[in-house]
Each structure stands twice: as structure tokens, then as C-alpha cells.
Amino acid sequence: MRRVAVIGVGVTKFGKHERTCAELFAEAAADAILDAGVSPRAIQAIYFGNVVGGEGERQLHMGPQAASVLGIPSVPTTRFETACATSHAALRHAMMEVAGGLSDVVLVGGAERVLNLPTDAATEYFAFASDAAFEQPAGITFPGVFALIARAHMAKHGTTEEQMAHVAVKNHRHGALNPKAQFQKEITIEQVLNSAKIADPLKLYDCCPFTDGAAAVVVASEEVARKSRRPVWILASAAASDSMFLHVKKDLSRVLATERAAEAAYRQAGRGPADVDVVELHDCFTIAEIVATEGLGFFEPGTGGVAAEKGWTSLGGKLPVNPSGGLKAKGHPIGATGAAQAAEIVTQLRHEAGSRQVDGAKVGLVHTLGGNTATVLVSLLGSE
Amino acid sequence: MSKVITLQAFFEEARAGRLTGIRCGRCGELAIPPKEFCPACQERAWEPLPLDGRGTIASFTVIRVPPRGRAAEAPYAVAVVRLDEGVSLLGRIVDIPLDALKVGLPVRFRPLVRDNQTVVGFGPTV
Ligand SMILES: [Zn+2]
């Protein structure tokens, strides 16, 4: 297999947009192509991620539409959907196409618009990523799924609502340093604890927002990457699954797909958790960040809440997690999230993250979780 | 020889108050249908196993911001229940006050029918 690098990144402002998914993706993609220093003509394939388009814009077949708006309509496109892990799955497949020698330059990313939908419609649509026979009819929601995980983690490990609140406060503090973030303002523990109840024990500020936005990265072979400005190498990219049925999970306090994908990624890269300098992980809810920091091997099972409380995951801490603000503050445009996380890690490893830069970062980890924890992707990126 | 229990059959039985699990004829693994291979031993030898419907709450949540069409039902509780036989099942909590819910609380299966769709429910044990 050939070595593969990310050579360019582009991310739109996250928040509310009036433009279509295709327009948003085209903006991020054009920025990524210019950042890569290649001609649009060099793109040999587009791996495009979107989840809600069919509902929100009455638009399927969004890949070629996005390529047409971008101005390279003859490039083959494929749309990916693995719920919230969508564009990270696209990134892994693009890497495989380049590693396998079929293409030298592939454009990857995703776009999402949900803020044009009423909250109850978006809540319903997101719940489609949980099982339609057992779970949706019971009235489950995505905050509900993670509330079940939170309650199990609290019962087993003594994790507290205040520890979860620390995750939100930290990610908002980071988001305040990110000009692309949906929320650029700090919040307090009290604000989190006193915010409206969504799905007990999760409150409004435990939840990431609905977000419109797009992100794109350009991946390339070593030969092309060597000629680019500042390549960041894909050291590993692994995917893992777990049962689609929540009721099958024997221990709701763990996300087995995260543990499996992390193990595979560390093995591929010949590295371990101690080698990681900076992390972008899937904090769709505060408890998700706590469980992920344990599953990725950074902290012992049951101690992720303590790590958040002690500030170990903050910028300036032992292991900065979500310097971008994470899904919580940067925002979560579902189909764009994986690519946006990868773009942040590339920016960090290029030492171009400005006031949210993790000093001396050389190895970064990207973790993206899909749906009811049934899909997880983990990639390791390195500046060398 | 494997008897496949379809989703339709599972929920028709559930509507009549009967929960149906499946047990692997090779390794004894318990599961909720539908399933072809045993995830534990990869054999294809399921046999139906009637489940008593009693269990305890493994985790629960109170949904306060519901999906479209359920505003009138909220707030309501959803729980993952560990059945006495060893398998778990997710369902809607019925007839238990929300502030009485806790991990470990004994509950019992009961079917709920909504818009002609059968939903797994769990209520008090007596
Ligand atoms: Zn078996």
C-alpha cells in the first residue's frame, strides 16, 4: 500500500446557512483544493457525505450536484452515509483508493443542512439512525440514546452530572477561540446544570446543536504530497461496528466499536495512546466525550469524568481534546463532521491553529461515531 | 435446523402479551429475533424460547423533547431492561411514576399498541 497524505483542508463557517448543501460543499472543497495547491483538474474522484439531504432539501444524488456546482462535473462521485460518521467513512475509503494506486488525488468531505427543519422534525429524522422496529416506536431520540449511556456510566462508575458539565464548559472555551465555530462564547458549570432538561440526565448544554455547514479535505499519494506545502500523513484509518440494537449491548457504559476501531488504528500505525498529542473526538453529547476518552485508551474505564473535571483534556492540559470546540461548540453538521474533525487535526499538525494551537503537536487522532454507537471510525494523522 | 422468527411474528406475539426470544442450539446464547447466525458461535441453529417478561431496569431516560408527533406523550420514560433470562430489551415505561424510576427497579413486559403498531412496554411487576 502507498503512503497517503492530507494536502489541503477547507471548512465553511458552522451555523445557519441559506445556501444548499451542494453550494456549501463546493465552498469548502474549493478552499481545500486551493490550500492543497493543486488544479481542480487534478481531482480524480469525489467521496461525498450527506445524511439529511433527502428530507431537508428534497435532494438525492447530491454527489454529482456538488461536483457540478464546484465546477468539475466530470469527476466520478460517490455518496456515503454512516449516520454521524459519514464523512470519516468517506475519508477512509478515499485513503484506500489512493493507497491502492487507483487514484493520486481524491476530494473527500460532506455537507449538511438541518436548521431549515423544525426541531421536532430534525429530532425525528436523526432518530431514524436508531432501529425502526424496537427503538423508534418506543419514542427514543438521540439525546435519549446517550442519556441511557450516561445513566449506565453514572451507575457503574459514579460519574456525575457536574463532570459532564465540565466537558461542555471546556469545549465552549475552546470554541470561543475558533472563528468557524457555531458558538464562540464561554459558558459556566451552573449554566449547564441549570439548562433545560432534554433527556434525563442530559440537559440542553450537554447536547451538541443542530448545525449547517460543510468540510472538505484533499488526500493524495506520497508523490503528489511531497510537492505540496505541508502534507499531513494518514498513519492509520480504521472502522469498526457494533450491534445496531441497543438492547444487545451488555454494558451500556462502554462503546465497543470505539475500542475496536482504536485497537485496529493503533496496530496499523504501530503506535499507542501515549503517542497522541491532540484529539478531535465525537462529543455529540458530553457523556460521549467521557466514554470516548476511555475507549480510545487515554484514561482508565470509569475515569473519563475525573479527567474532564481535572482539566486534563483542556488546552494546556495533559492531552487536549477537541481544541476546535468539538461538536458541542464548533457544531455538528452531521455529514460534514468527520471531515471537519480531520481538517482541525491537519491544521493542528501544521501548527496553524492560532490561539487554540496545541504546542508541538506531531500526532493527532480523529474519532467519529455514527448513530446509536453502531459505527466508529478512528484515524491517526502525523506530521512526519 | 433453525426456525426463523420474523419481526412481524415477534410483534404479533408481543401484541398478545408473549415475548419470544431465541436460544442457540449449539452454544446456548440467548438473543432477540430476528437473527440468522449466532453472534457467539456463528452456528445457524436457533430455537424459540418464550421469555417470562420480568426483568430489572439496566438504564433509563426521561424524554422531554420528543420526536415529531409525540408532543402529547412527553415527558415519557424509555428503558433498557435486563430480562431474568439474561437478554435485554428496550421499551417504553408505562404506569410507573417518573420519579420512582431507578437502575435495578423490577419491571414486567406489557405490549403497547399505538396507531396499530405494537411497541414493547414495561410496567410495574404487580
Ligand atoms: Zn451459538
- Report the major sheet of chain B: 5 strands, mixed, barrel
Residue-averaged pLDDT of chain A, rounded?
97
Specify the helix fraction band of chain A.
25-40%
Radius of gyration of chain B: 16 Å
Detail the topology: elements first, then pairings:
The complex is a heterodimer of chains A (384) and B (126).
Chain A: E1 4-11, H1 21-36, E2 45-49, H2 53-56, H3 62-70, E3 77-80, H4 86-99, E4 105-112, H5 119-127, H6 142-157, H7 161-175, H8 189-193, E5 197-199, E6 202-203, E7 213-221, H9 222-225, E8 232-241, H10 256-269, E9 278-280, H11 286-295, H12 304-309, H13 326-329, H14 337-349, E10 363-370, E11 375-382
Parallel strand pairs in A: 2-3, 2-4, 9-10
Antiparallel strand pairs in A: 1-7, 1-8, 4-7, 5-6, 8-11, 10-11
Chain B: H1 7-15, E1 19-24, E2 30-31, E3 46-51, E4 54-63, E5 76-83, E6 88-93, E7 106-114, E8 117-123
Parallel strand pairs in B: 6-8
Antiparallel strand pairs in B: 1-2, 1-3, 4-5, 4-7, 5-6, 7-8
Provide keyphrases for this structure.
heterodimer; A: 384 residues; alpha/beta; Peroxisomal Thiolase, Chain A, domain 1; nine-stranded mixed beta sheet; two-stranded antiparallel sheet; 14 helices; B: 126 residues; mainly beta; OB fold (Dihydrolipoamide Acetyltransferase, E2P); 2 domains; five-stranded mixed β-barrel; three-stranded antiparallel beta sheet; 7% helix; binds zinc ion
Describe it for me?
The complex is a heterodimer of chains A (384) and B (126). Chain A is an alpha/beta fold and 384 residues long. Chain A has a domain at 137-209 and 238-328 and 359-374: Peroxisomal Thiolase, Chain A, domain 1. Chain A is built from 14 helices and 11 strands. Chain A has helices at residues 21-36, 53-56, 62-70, 86-99, 119-127, 142-157, 161-175, 189-193, 222-225, 256-269, 286-295, 304-309, 326-329, 337-349, and strands at 4-11, 45-49, 77-80, 105-112, 197-199, 202-203, 213-221, 232-241, 278-280, 363-370, 375-382. In chain A, a hairpin with a 4-residue loop joins strand 10 and strand 11. In chain A, helix 4 (86-99) crosses helix 14. Chain A is globular. The mean pLDDT of chain A is 97. Chain B has 126 residues and is mainly beta. Chain B folds into 2 domains: 7-51; 54-123, OB fold (Dihydrolipoamide Acetyltransferase, E2P), CATH 2.40.50. Helix content of chain B is 7%, strand content 43%. Chain B contains 1 helix and 8 strands; from the N terminus they run H-E-E-E-E-E-E-E-E. Chain B has one helix spanning 7-15; strands spanning 19-24, 30-31, 46-51, 54-63, 76-83, 88-93, 106-114, 117-123. The radius of gyration of chain B is 16 Å and the shape is globular. Chain B starts with 6 loop residues before the first helix and ends with a strand. The mean pLDDT of chain B is 95. The chains are: A alpha/beta (384), B mainly beta (126). The interface between A and B is large, with 39 and 36 residues. The complex binds zinc ion. Residues 24, 26-27, 29, 38, 40-41, 43 of chain B line the site of zinc ion. Zinc ion binds next to loops of chain B.
